[in-house]
């Protein structure tokens, strides 16, 4: 699930690094981490790059979490 992947990413990158790379607010990052919000379209490519996966793979994870 996306929130679990994000938690793992936070073990290797700081919140500041993620926020700067993705261009989101700190509150948005927290909501993603807690599963309260799924990333919008404009965040898909930067997040996929951070995870070293394709945007399609990230979208699959997001779909699995929503459904």
TrEMBL record:
Gene3D superfamilies per record: lambda repressor-like DNA-binding domains
Annotated source species: Vibrio crassostreae
Keywords, comma-separated and alphabetical: DNA-binding
Highest taxon listed in the record's lineage: Bacteria
GO molecular function, one term: DNA binding
Keyword DNA-binding: yes
Keyword DNA-binding in record: yes
One Pfam family in the UniProt entry: HTH_3
SUPFAM superfamilies (UniProt xref): lambda repressor-like DNA-binding domains
InterPro entries linked to this entry: Cro/C1-type_HTH, Lambda_DNA-bd_dom_sf
Protein's UniProt name: DNA-binding helix-turn-helix protein
